[in-house]
């Protein structure tokens, strides 16, 4: 595949353009995803007010360079409810639900993929709604090559699953925690 050649840009085009590095396109206007941070703040505030949860904010190492990122966790007061965590990474978010569900919003910040920030906000809200309604289940599955986690999220407008390998220690820990059989997380309790 031939590398793409940049076209000359007008003054207005210089603000939003695609940089080429080693023949691949990269994001140069990641500011368009800042709306995700605002939407996540609003969602966390709404859920903290509406549901019986404990809110914890920390700065944690995250990513390859172990940069500190702000992380907010909502932990239901009932242990039967799955926790929600949002990592406020560079231009986007990492959404964690329960023990293994993890999703990057956006999945790619490059100008070519051009993920719509409004669609990502809707996805964030739909996933959170499915979680608090009790739509998340998770389990550990043993296989010939080792153990795997399986997770499924089902709710209004959401029906997705993820799976991935677990280390031997991670699998033992998960089975001790009751994940050998499928765990259906309970709905979050709502304030009276």
Strand content: 35-45%
Helix content: 10-25%
> Which secondary-structure class do the elements indicate?
alpha+beta
Oligomeric state of the chains? single chain
Are there runs of 5+ residues with pLDDT below 50, and where?
A: 1-26
Q: What is the overall silhouette?
A: globular
Number of strands: 11
Notes on the protein architecture:
InterPro entries: DUF6226. The protein folds into 2 domains: 30-132, no CATH class; 136-184, no CATH class. With 192 residues, the chain is α+β, with helices and mostly antiparallel strands. The longest helix is centred in the N-terminal third of the chain and has 17 residues, at 34-50. The termini are far apart. The chain has a 5-stranded antiparallel sheet, with helices on one face. A 4-stranded antiparallel sheet has the order 10-9-8-11. Helices cover 24% and strands 36% of the residues. The radius of gyration is 19 Å and the shape is globular. The protein has helices spanning 11-15, 34-50, 117-132, 168-176; strands at residues 19-21, 24-26, 53-62, 67-76, 84-88, 93-97, 101-105, 136-143, 146-155, 158-166, 183-184.
Which properties best describe this structure?
single chain, alpha+beta, 2 domains, 5-stranded antiparallel beta sheet, 11 strands, 36% strand, globular, disordered N terminus
Overview in brief:
The chain is of the alpha+beta class and 192 residues long. It has helices spanning 11-15, 34-50, 117-132, 168-176; strands at 19-21, 24-26, 53-62, 67-76, 84-88, 93-97, 101-105, 136-143, 146-155, 158-166, 183-184.
Strand and helix map with partners:
Elements lengths: L10 H5 L3 E3 L2 E3 L7 H17 L2 E10 L4 E10 L7 E5 L4 E5 L3 E5 L11 H16 L3 E8 L2 E10 L2 E9 L1 H9 L6 E2 L8
């Amino acid at each position: 595949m031939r590398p793409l050649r940049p076209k000359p840009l007008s003054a207005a085009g210089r603000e939003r353009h695609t940089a080429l590095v080693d023949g691949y396109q990269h994001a140069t206007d990641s500011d368009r995803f800042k709306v995700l941070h605002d939407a996540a703040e609003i969602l966390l505030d709404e859920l903290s007010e509406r549901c019986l949860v404990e809110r914890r904010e920390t700065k944690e190492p995250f990513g390859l360079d172990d940069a500190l990122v702000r992380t907010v966790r909502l932990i239901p007061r009932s242990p039967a409810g799955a926790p929600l965590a949002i990592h406020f990474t560079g231009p986007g978010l990492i959404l964690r639900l329960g023990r293994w569900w993890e999703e990057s919003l956006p999945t790619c910040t490059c100008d070519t993929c051009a993920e719509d920030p409004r669609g990502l906000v809707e996805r964030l809200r739909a996933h959170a709604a499915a979680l608090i309604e009790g739509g998340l289940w998770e389990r550990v599955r043993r296989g010939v090559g080792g153990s795997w986690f399986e997770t499924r999220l089902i709710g209004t407008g959401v029906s997705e699953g993820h799976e991935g390998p677990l280390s031997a220690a991670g699998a033992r820990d998960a089975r001790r925690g009751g994940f050998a059989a499928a765990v259906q997380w309970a709905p979050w309790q709502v304030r009276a």
